[in-house]
């Protein structure tokens, strides 16, 4: 291969690596760019700082290696190599002992400062608390102050610290919103605290970041950070109880729902459905996705989900239903009315 071809090939490989690195660091599931929360910003600064220091050390080491490889060996007058004139010892003491000690101390101190600031965040004041309960494979969000129980969509007011009290109903999961905050483990029988505070309005992707079984990758949620007014109106909507006596197709669907096994696992406030195994459906139509971010929340997808959940999310605890097409249509109409 000619010199020119080699340069071109090398450049192409470098460009591909840089493109991959950029794609890996700029998506919704990373915390190294466009962060919108104090905690994530702090970790991003720490990560970039550590990378810069590591890159500097790497360059210094490679420079010395190149110098050692390519320098001409010095010889004394009689043609023998000069093995040690004292300069080598000084270099080893500085480069091999003093320099690494300084670098490690700097890394240790900036990590301690970040950890301390993080601990202060999580024990500081907050406007209210959300109980986060991880399930295989979805997220339950209970707002005890507001009396709300919802799933897979977490609303918070922008610029206000909200305390998440994270636990699990079954196995170990991990609650993570990369753009906002560090990860926190969801452990059965234990509660771990972490504060979410968004610095800008937006919808932020959250995900389970601890392998928890077959559908670990389908255990997403969204954090919607919005103005105090928008948040308060969402709270008011969620607190509403759906009409006890709907009409037409919706009434037929309500009867299908209350007469089926749905009620053993799901709740709809104001009805006899009080199951707590699956997500609370009181305002299911207000959510944008179904099955923890697996499919969009449209009537067609909802019908397909109810008819055969295992085909969409194999392993989910939701069983297939044996409803007739008419019953399914009525049930979807009822669920769509729960906004
Ligand atoms: Cu839950 Cu992974």
Short description:
The chain is of the alpha+beta class. It has helices at residues 3-26, 38-70, 87-123, 228-239, 248-258, 262-265, 299-307, 309-312, 325-337; strands at residues 128-135, 138-143, 148-151, 153-157, 162-168, 173-176, 184-186, 192-196, 202-208, 220-226, 289-290, 295-296.
What does this structure look like?
By secondary structure, this protein is of the alpha+beta class. Helix content is 43%, strand content 18%. It contains 9 helices and 12 strands. A 5-stranded mixed beta sheet has the order 3-2-1-5-8. Strand 1 and strand 2 form a beta hairpin. Helix 5 crosses helix 9. The radius of gyration is 28 Å and the shape is elongated. The termini are far apart. 27% of the residues are buried. The model has no long low-confidence stretch (mean pLDDT 88).
Q: Order of strands in the sheet with the most strands?
A: 3-2-1-5-8
* Counted beta strands: 12
Mind summarizing the main beta sheet? 5 strands, mixed
Beta fraction: 15-25%
Q: Looking at the structure, what is the overall shape?
A: elongated
Q: Any idea what the radius of gyration is?
A: 28 Å
List cofactors, ions and other ligands: dinuclear copper ion
Q: In terms of structural class, how would the helical and strand content be classed? A: alpha+beta
Low-confidence stretches: none
Helix content: 40-55%
- Round the mean pLDDT to the nearest integer and report it: 88
Number of helices: 9
| N-end to C-end Cα span | 66 Å
Helix and strand pattern: HHHEEEEEEEEEEHHHEEHHH
């Amino acid at each position: 291969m000619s010199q020119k071809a080699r340069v071109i090939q090398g450049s192409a490989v470098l460009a591909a690596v840089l493109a991959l690195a950029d794609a890996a660091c700029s998506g919704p599931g990373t915390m190294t760019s466009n962060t919108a929360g104090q905690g994530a910003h702090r970790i991003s600064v720490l990560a970039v700082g550590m990378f810069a220091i590591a890159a500097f050390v790497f360059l210094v080491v490679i420079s010395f290696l190149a110098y050692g490889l390519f320098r001409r060996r010095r010889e004394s007058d009689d043609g023998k190599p000069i093995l040690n004139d004292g300069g080598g010892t000084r270099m080893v003491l500085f480069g091999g002992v003093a320099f690494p000690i300084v670098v490690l101390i700097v890394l240790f101190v900036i990590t301690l400062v970040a950890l301390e600031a993080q601990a202060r965040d999580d024990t500081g004041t907050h406007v209210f608390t959300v109980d986060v309960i991880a399930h295989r494979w979805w997220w339950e969000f209970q707002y005890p102050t507001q009396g709300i129980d919802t799933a897979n969509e977490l609303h918070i007011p922008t610029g206000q610290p909200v305390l998440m009290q994270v636990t699990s109903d079954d196995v170990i999961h991990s609650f993570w919103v990369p753009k906002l905050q560090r990860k926190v483990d969801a452990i059965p029988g234990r509660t771990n605290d972490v504060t979410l505070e968004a610095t800008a309005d937006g919808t932020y992707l959250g995900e389970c970041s601890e392998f928890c079984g077959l559908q670990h990758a389908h255990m997403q949620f969204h954090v919607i950070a919005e103005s105090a007014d928008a948040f308060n109106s969402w709270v008011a909507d969620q607190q509403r109880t759906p009409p006890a006596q709907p009409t037409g197709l919706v009434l037929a669907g309500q009867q299908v729902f209350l007469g089926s096994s749905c009620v053993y696992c799901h709740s709809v406030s104001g009805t006899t459905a009080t199951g707590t195994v699956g997500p609370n459906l009181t305002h299911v139509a207000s959510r944008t996705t179904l099955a923890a971010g697996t499919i969009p929340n449209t009537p067609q997808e909802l019908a397909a989900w109810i008819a055969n959940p295992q085909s969409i999310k194999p392993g989910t605890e939701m069983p297939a239903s044996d409803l007739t097409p008419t019953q399914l249509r009525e049930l979807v109409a009822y669920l769509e009315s729960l906004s």
